[in-house]
Predict the 3D structure of the following.
Amino acid sequence: MTSRIVKTVTKDLLPFILLFGVYIILYGHLSPGGGFQGGVILATAVLLVVVVYGIGRFQKFIPYLTVAETVGVTLFVLIGMIGIAYGKQFLVNFGTIPLMNIIIGLKVFVGLLLMYLFFIGWEVKK
Amino acid sequence: MIEHLPIFLLITPLISGLIVTLISISSKTEKIQKIITFISLSLPFLYLTLLFQELSDGVIEYNIGGWTKPYAITLVVDDLAFALLVITSIVTFLSFIYSLKCMRETGGNFCFFYLLMTTGLYGIFLTGDIFNLYVFFELTVISSYILITFGDKRTSLMASFKYLIMGSIASFFFLLAIGLLYIKTGLLNIEYLSMNIHQIDCQTQMVIFSLFLVALGIKAAIIPFHVWLVSAHSTAPSPVSAVLSGITVKTGVYIFIRIFTLGCTLQNLNETLIALGALTALGGVTGALVEWDIKRLLAYHTISQMGFIIVGIGTFSDIGITGGIYHIVNHAVFKGLLFLCAGSIIYRTGTSDIREHGIGRTMPITLITYIIAALAISGITPFNGAVSKSLIEASVYNYPIIRLILVFASIGTVAHFSKIFYYSFIKTQKHRDPLRYQEVPFSMLIPMVILAFLCILLGIIPNIWLDNFILPATSSIIGGYNVIQFKLFDALLILKEMIIVALGIILLKVIIVRSKDIDRLRTFISKFNLNICIFLMAITLVFVLVIFSLSN
Amino acid sequence: MINGLNIGIVLFLIGLYGIITNKNVIKMVMSLGVMGNSIVLFFISLGYITDGEAPIMTSGVKQIVDPIPQTLMLTMIVINLCLTALALTIIVWLYNEFGTLDMREIG
Amino acid sequence: MKIEILEKIVVACVLIFLGIIIISFTMLTYSTTLSSDLSEYCLENLPLTGAINVVCAILLDFRAYDTLGEILIIFVTVSGVVLLARREK
């Protein structure tokens, strides 16, 4: 995948894919979309870069990705716990839908990216 | 704060799992992770004690998100769920203590997946929503797939893969059934579904129940769908095997009890379940005939005991369901104990082949706990297996053939456990290595001793347990019960048990002499691979549908 | 007779056929994928209402399709993705250990 | 070789029979009106959630507990994949 055409197109296309992913996440409660869908789009954008430019520069991000993933789940549970702290039920809604969308988007993005990186890492090792 | 107890039960292992991961990223010390896991697995005992006081006022319900009941996801703690939650917390806690010594090299990762599996199990027993059941079942089994690969390197991967394929097929059948229920009733709450199920037309009911039968049959390892269980339970690490065999298999039966006993108007559903259960009870014992691997033997016995439970529940009578629920609890205790014993023997000798064990009397506490568990699973009087087995046999009083099959299964059970006893404990190896033959560490002994104590306690005062735990659980399913007083030392029962033990030992003799026929049986059993098993599953589905359509 | 619901059931059985007859583990996982997608088709068709619109309540929307099955399927798709990823990971290691992908040789 | 083809034919026949039974028993068709109690309840209470997208509102409010289970499943799977990838031979 070292063709110049592919590299140029990827470089030009990347911001738009990322922007589209962020749009899908942020407007999830108003238009078709949501955290999962946007997260997957973001992950595929980075996957495109990995496929075209090689995995080399992404290896060092892996520990940070793991942390981000754990933090994402923890934040989701903590938002759920807010309800208990205010004397209501678990996972009660305080207008938190956009926030939850962002957290889920982050989590899915990071999780899928980690899986892709490990799968591709195997391919390279062989 | 007291009304949030059900959700705390679920959140505690979950949050500690997250903390364990965060710690494992920053540092490599396993001590803190193990302490956190220990605390979070012991906290449920506190919650359950508090819940037990609440439970006397009636069923505890917790609507998540604050929406009203049949529409929100509801956590329901009734007596049945409570009994299973208690046994889950006991087995997971004791298995974790056991794993401290024998799972040393895997460390923090093991703690994380173990905690998430526990979360999933609590989620299954707490939830009152049928789709949520699917989600938490997937959480449990996905953690189990990974936990299984911690075991023996080569075979555990294949076992995990088989379990994954069968588990996914079960989930898909379950989802199809959920879809049909949803389109016909427009609800997902289990309690309201059961109230509205008689409104569905008869033919759709047949399809729904045969789909559920396949889905839950795979999860409960009924015989044509059992192929994943033996490899998965035998190659997993011993503490994980104890939880898988003690609790995870029971989730299938738990959903059986919740769904099948409720408002179903189909003819012949009872007979189908009882026949499948009897086949499972006999088939599990037959499969164990050819095995020399201690954990595979125990796994086949799990199948056989699941057959007993299915027979009890399939009668839909109060005595049968009581026996079934009691046997669920008992089986979790003694099968957990047996797997821990097997783990101890493997820990010292390094092999799971019983012909190479021959530890003699060098491990006295393991020996005593093994004898207690073996007597309990064979159904000998002062131990807990006797109570539930005689209740189940009493419930199929009208089906003499089924009773005969259950007696045969009991004889086979005695034979196999005396086989393990003879080869592992009585026979002694010639070349003894003194280091290998000594008692296991203290932290591995404690869970075994506690479980052995529970075996005796559940057997020696059965009426207290029946009155306070099991019969209320039955009444929460079928809405009422007759008081069952179990007579502990019945002369006729003891005579029957002695005959069964005698026949079992004769059977063992026959097995050892006729080894050629056993080899033929082994080639026959080895033909049941994954593909054929799934094909048999499809045939069973057709068969059940045809039976239903002929009789309704 | 020919609608999404029945085609979902047919696809489900095709996936089952694939799992029964294939001995290659990767093909078995692909058949699992077919089964999963058939479930998605089945559920989405369950919620479909003739002439219904997407369930987004902007002004002027009269008849919407049932949103519940769509939501359930969003959950199910993600779970299915996780199962497939895990199955493929296990298959890589199976190949490393046994050197083959044939179910009969792996055991 | 012959036996394998025979196997496939038998399997196909059983599954075709199964399909015919299920489809003829259930007789499913598209519905014409929204008849589910659950969806109607969700639509009535939609203004309380602060979202217009009904699917998103159900996913993150009415059935947020399912979503919690779901992100836990992603978490477990990713950890499992990472663990298995680092597993030594």
Observations:
- The mean pLDDT of chain D is 88.
